[in-house]
Amino acid sequence: MVRINISLAEDLFEELVQEVPPRKRSRFIAESLRVALDRKKAQQLAEEYQAAAAEILEMSRELEGVSGDGLD
What is the pTM of this model? Predict the structure, then answer.
């Protein structure tokens, strides 16, 4: 386990204090961070898949005209 020191906007801190009991805040923040990081990774992966799909589609289009050449 690692301890860190973070800064929060005052309104965000006040909402945290109101919504999450004192002895459960670290866990809440850690779980929230995990969800946010997982979402970010999923978004990055989706973008990589879209880029790969676009590249494959482009390659497929380029090869369409060549695939029948010389097979007569």
Answer: 0.69
